[in-house]
Structures are given as C-alpha cells and as structure tokens.
Amino acid sequence: MAKGYRYVECRAIGHSWDQIDDDRSHKSFGAALQFRCTRCYSVRRDVVSTVTGELLYRSYSKPDDYATSDPLDRNDWRLLLISSRRRTRRSVAKKPELKVVGGTGK
Ligand SMILES: [Zn+2]
C-alpha cells in the first residue's frame, strides 16, 4: 500500500459498523448504543432518544495509529483504495443477490 497507510478502506468508504454490547451505564434520557468497526476496531458510541429516535450524542474512539498528519481528503483515500485494489484484488466467493433500492446511495 502506498506509503504504508493503514485503514484505507475505512477512510475511503467509511467504517463497517457492527453493533456490540454497550458497557456504559444506562442513560436516563436515551438508549446507549455501541458499535465497532469490523476492519479497524474503531468504536462509535451513540445515545438515541427513545421517544423520537433522534441522535443525542455521538463519540468515536479510534486506533492510536489512525490519525495521519497528511492532509488527505476522501477523494485522496479513494484513489489510494483504487490503487491498492489493483495490486491485491480479492476474489469474492459467493455473493448474495442485492437489489438497488435507492437513487444515488450513500
Ligand atoms: Zn473502520
């Protein structure tokens, strides 16, 4: 990978969140939800209103070596992802059938 950057996928396309048990004591004003990225093990902690579903609070914990001093934006990371994929393309075993449901996606 160019310059040895880590976590290029997460930086280029976003984290792959898995919901995990939340170790915080329960908030009286909302439900505490905790997620961990399956690739880089970043953790996201949300508190969501149990009345409206609104996001009331969010924080992230990232690996120590996640931060980079290089001023790269999402486009740069996507280019790095493309170039790393050319070298280490993986074959996908068996894909489930997916339907396109939205217009532009996210
Ligand atoms: Zn990640």
Task: Write a structural description.
By secondary structure, this protein is an alpha+beta fold. The protein has one domain (2-87). The protein is built from two helices and four strands, in the order αββββα. It has helices at 8-13, 74-87; strands spanning 17-20, 31-37, 43-48, 55-61. Strands 1-2-3-4 form a four-stranded antiparallel sheet, with no helix packed on it. A hairpin with a 6-residue loop joins β3 (43-48) and β4. It is globular, with a radius of gyration of 17 Å. The mean pLDDT is 84. Zinc ion (ZN) binds at residues 7, 10, 15, 37, 39-40, 42. The site of zinc ion has 7 residues, from loops.
Descriptive terms for the model:
2 helices, 23% strand, binds zinc ion, 106 residues, alpha+beta
Helix proportion:
10-25%
Bound molecules: zinc ion
Uncertain segments of ≥5 residues (pLDDT<50)? none
Which of globular, elongated, flat, extended, rod-shaped describes the shape?
Answer: globular
Question: What string, H for helix and E for strand, traces the elements in order?
Answer: HEEEEH
Number of domains: 1
Please report the total strand number as a whole number: 4
- Identify the strand order in the major beta sheet: 1-2-3-4
Structural class: alpha+beta
What's the tally of helices?
2
Mean pLDDT: 84
How would you characterize the largest beta sheet? 4 strands, antiparallel
How much strand?
15-25%
Q: End-to-end distance, in Å?
A: 26 Å
Radius of gyration (CA) equals: 17 Å
